[in-house]
Design brief:
The complex is a heterodimer of chains A (755) and B (291). Chain A is of the alpha+beta class and 755 residues long. Chain A has 17 helices and 27 strands. Classes of the chains: A alpha+beta (755), B alpha+beta (291).
Amino acid sequence: MRAIGSSIPRVDAWKKVTGEALYPGDIEMPGMLHMKVLFAHRPHARIVHIDTSKAEAADGVVAVFTAKDVPVNEYGLLIRDQPVLCGPGSDKEGADIVRFVGDQVALVVAETAEQAQAALDLIDVTYEDLPVVSSVEEALAPDAPRVHAHRENNVLQAYRIRRGDIEEGFAQADVIVEETFRTGFQEHAYLQPEAGVAYVDEEGRVVVITAGQWTHEDREQIAHALGLPEDRVVVRYAAIGGAFGGREDMSVQIILALAAWHLHKRGIDRPVKIVWTREESIIGHHKRHAMVARARWGARRDGTLVAVQVDLTLDAGAYAYTSTKVLGNATLACVGPYEVPNVWVDTRAVYTNNLPSGAFRGFGGPQGHFVAENMMNRLAEALNMDPVELRMRNVLREGSLLPTQAPVPPGCTMPQVLERLALEAGWTWDAERGWQAPPPPEPTPPAPRPGLAALEATSPRRLRGRGLAIAYKNVGFSYGFVDECHATVELHGGAEIERVVVRHAGADVGQGAHTVMAQFAAEALDVPLERITLIVSHTAETDNSGSSSASRMTFMAGNAIKRAAEEALRLWREEEARPAVAHYRYIPRPTTPYDPETGRADPNITYGYVGQVAEVEVDPETGHVYLTRVITVDDVGRAVNPQQVEGQIEGAIAQAFGWTVMEDFQVEGGRVLTDRLSTYLIPTVQDVPEEMRSIIMEFPDPQGPYGARGMGEMPFIPLPPAIIAAVRQATGVWFNEIPLTPERVWRALQEKGTE
Amino acid sequence: MKPPAFKYYAPSSVEEALALLAEHGYDAKILAGGQSLIPTMNFRLAQPGVLVDLNRVSELAFIRPADDGGLLIGAMTRHVQVETSDLVAQRLPLLHETMPFIAHPQIRNRGTYGGSISHADPAAELPAITVTHRGKIHLRSTRGSRWVDADDFFVGLFTTALEPDEMVVEIALPPLPPRTGWAFDEFSRRHGDFALVGVAAAVTLDPAGAVEDARLVFMGVGDRPMKGDTAVALLRGQVPSADLIEEAATRAAQEDIDPFGDVHASAAFRRHLAAVLAKRVLTRAVERANR
């Protein structure tokens, strides 16, 4: 049996099922102390004074830390614009300002978590409230208060794409559609809230054991804030209970290291542990960016797209996080997977006093495609043309130019994915009429409830509809970032290879990355999987892998491990030394940043391609939208572990359904109204569609290891506009704003009824 | 979080339990299925000094036929027992129909009838069903024993007629009269969550097909089960038509309930949902009465 392409059980499954695997919150160490964070709980204020004396004197309290204790009081993945602790006394200018409710003000370390919690109330903080910038509209107003005083305005980053002649394009258009779209924040809601343990080891290194997405980046940010060389910091990951982008930025990493380091200097060599509550997690880490976008698209009568204009704004919140990169993706994605001669795109990410926004599965792709795919479905309607037919006439193909005027990387299979999707969902094609949709589904009575007789006669009929959308998602870091991924493979044994050690930093956030790593090694070496030992997610034992994000870990780790294994095998065969050890640093093909004037760029290494059809039922009296069926076609290049691929697809669909219909993250004046899972509703297994049909296509990516593309994000992306189109078919109403809460749907149906 | 320290007693008889309640009074809380009390204690919203655990009082777990054709249900009867009971299905079809709506199977495995009505969450199903059935609740203390009408038992938000030394021992649910149809429905944004609104109905028709009696009870839209008396008054004596039912449902949703607004839905939307669900359950009840 080949290792690649088989659904072998996950290497971590047994320990997770039996409870043997330790998540960060499970770790107990002798003599361990406990830490709690004092969050600001106000959206914008200056801290005039902090008095910690009462807290320091409280029962069980060992230490209290504030801004003055942070050696270099700044951090950030891309831009170091956030204080580790807000307050007076540090060197960092502007660190006395809190800019969102989850800014951290003080740390209390005590013998027990309860004592630490109690002491938080004894910290006396004098705030001077500042005007709150609560929306992008407020942030962009001419006299808006500035979230970061030293900046000229609240625009964190802006991009533009200029291709062709937009006015000429609209002049050629027979049909022009113009709309404004809004999408909301989304909370990652991973099972495991932020937690970790830190201590100083016998070699004097600060060790942080936590859950993250990129060990080496965590290490760099910790070392910077502590003013230490990187080799004095070790980051290790315990089992990780989900990430979805939400662990890409720092949460507890720096503060844990800070506390352990200070205690060590005071002669207190005891580990420090922190576990955030769900409420702390929800205000303490970033969200998916809320978006507002205006779009104007024009097409000829024959369906040829001739002009695409989009103006798109993302709410970056209080700090940069990965907003500039998310914006970059949204800038490309808002044109959709189409070849368009005339493109005019303006985008910006804007600071506000809302929670920071950042990485979340899809990374700007969902927002961008929400614009593009809704516009395509509206254009199809305006042209009285089938939505598949319209797409087929414009879709990116091998050799097409992207809006940024670089050719799409080889291996573009958008047409093949679209065709398969259409056929699977009942579309037909003939030479005369082209693509034709199946008839719309008939309204049906609701399914009988468990234990009830069918009540067709008295139950109102549910309206049904079907909608389609497609998408593409980049694999790997983009826009000129030099991406890299290291792997080391050791072959132990005598006459034959008895044991293989794979060293790799990559984080298994729950998606199964480590299983896939073992499969790559087994395949490349042609040894049974049982002989593979993984040493993973440990900065002192492995080299930089880059992040488990951007749908990149299978692609990058696969390329690195495959080549390291091949080299180790060569050494094994050609040389005497045992173990045979090879290291490989995989660097994918280079990309380039947006040109500031034209947006010209070769933006991404490669892409995965996806299309989905959604079927919904809508209760016209309650406004409830039920997602009943999804057909999803994903070109993953090569399904390294098909079961894990299906798991990613189904998880993405559940999460995308949540964003589109159920999840309603509410913020008022910078304050979060939905900071717990009883107020912020995510779908349960009973709410996701009963039928999710995954069709996995395997057109190899020329750059992919054994042809594999990244695929963890893309099944999220087409579902929202597919649901919107399905609801349109069911109810006759187009929605431009999500989530489709029952109340929003009901109100819109009321308005339609009274028109 | 975990609850603060408390004293714990596990009596094995009703007498023992009553003696403990008499001794500790206000300081004591009864632990039945624990599906509301334990989370409340873990959040430290409730901090009882004494817990009296009824889970070993086996004499309180029963479903018995009553002489009037209804049932007597012991306070410690689990939801799952009610849900799967043939006696309940035969004699109290409205209750049978409602049970699967209560939260999730895990909760129904532990939660008890007596616990639910003593907790008196206005958004819970069993208080509303007990009122719809015109049930009677048997309370005992060391001072004696009394029966209270369901109508008088639910006093307000999480508040009942129970005195600190009293506990619910059983619930008597009379059967619905002949020629009576029934229905229950609720609406929640997510499966198994507390409903935004729930409504129970029972409609009794006379031989000529006019409404002899009707009951309509809302949950989640007031501080206790709310009776739709406006609808009942409109329906009584009339041969129900779709228009009349719609009017009755709408009027009751306007006049008989007091919904609140929160992050899940505005008060206005809850009122709208109450009208929609009332219309649906009344229609279904009339249909069943006509069969």
